Known about the structure:
With 106 residues, the chain is mainly alpha-helical. It has two domains: 49 residues, no CATH class; 34 residues, no CATH class. The protein has three helices and two strands. The chain is elongated and about 60 Å long. The chain starts with 8 loop residues before the first strand and ends in a 26-residue tail after the last helix. The site of flavin-adenine dinucleotide has 20 residues, from α1 and α2.
Amino acid sequence: MGLPSHANVVIIGGGVAGCSIAYHLTRIGITDVALLERRQLTCGTTWHAAGLVGQLRATRNLTELAKYTADLYHSLEAETGQATDLVSVKISRPSMPHWRPMPEPL
Ligand SMILES: Cc1cc2nc3c(=O)[nH]c(=O)nc-3n(C[C@H](O)[C@H](O)[C@H](O)COP(=O)(O)OP(=O)(O)OC[C@H]3O[C@@H](n4cnc5c(N)ncnc54)[C@H](O)[C@@H]3O)c2cc1C
């Protein structure tokens, strides 16, 4: 595919970050987007990822972002026809008997 002569937004790198930015820009109506990848889409670190979408992160914002991501993966197939094959795994307390509820903050 030839390079466009003009784009409002140019994203360099077709890993999960670049692809996600392109996807979300087009979702809010910014469609004049060019995604430049030097080799092949997702050929970088993204190709090596195990595909885990951990839900508990270091900060509240990151945790909310992770939750958004998991929800998005579930809705992507309906939206695009492309299966993500995401499987939800929940760890319940009986399988982790040493877990205790956190005490309420003082
Ligand atoms: C072994 C392993 C397992 C992992 N498992 C998980 C996991 O289970 N869950 C999780 O959330 N994260 C995981 N990660 C981390 C996750 O893979 C990365 O955080 C994520 O893929 C980074 O995405 P990225 O788009 O920033 O970078 P990349 O995927 O590396 O994408 C960068 C892209 O930019 C392109 N590029 C670079 N320079 C140029 C240029 N000048 N012009 C054009 N294109 C260029 C590259 O070719 C590449 O395709 C794992 C990482 C590794 C190494």
